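lol forgot to send this yesterday, sorry. struct tokens for the thing we talked abt
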């Protein structure tokens, strides 16, 4: 990301699991979740760098709606986002007293 002029906001291990089928001889995969900012004109170069990197077997790059960025980054960091006034702190489950 930095090589392409971007900024990593948060990066963490998402999960490790056995792959549904071997990919280039790999039977297990580690999935990383990374949120970053980058000029969209650099995405072609960034995706090319991912393809030629031997450590990266597969990748998926998605654009996030700007109004969701802060909440997603906080969630990835493991933090609690600030709740608007009147929003329940704990989810209310049907059938349980509030």
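and heres what i got for the seq, position by position
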């Amino acid at each position: 990301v930095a090589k392409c002029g971007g900024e990593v906001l948060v990066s963490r291990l998402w999960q490790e699991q056995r792959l549904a089928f071997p990919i280039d001889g790999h039977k297990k995969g580690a999935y990383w979740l990374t949120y970053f900012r980058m000029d969209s004109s650099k995405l072609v170069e960034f995706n090319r760098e991912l393809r030629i990197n031997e450590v990266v077997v597969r990748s998926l790059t998605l654009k996030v709606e700007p109004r969701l960025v802060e909440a997603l980054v906080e969630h990835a960091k493991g933090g609690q986002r600030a709740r608007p006034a009147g929003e329940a702190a704990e989810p209310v489950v049907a059938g349980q007293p509030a």
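Strands lie at 7-23, 26-37. anyway ping me if u want another try
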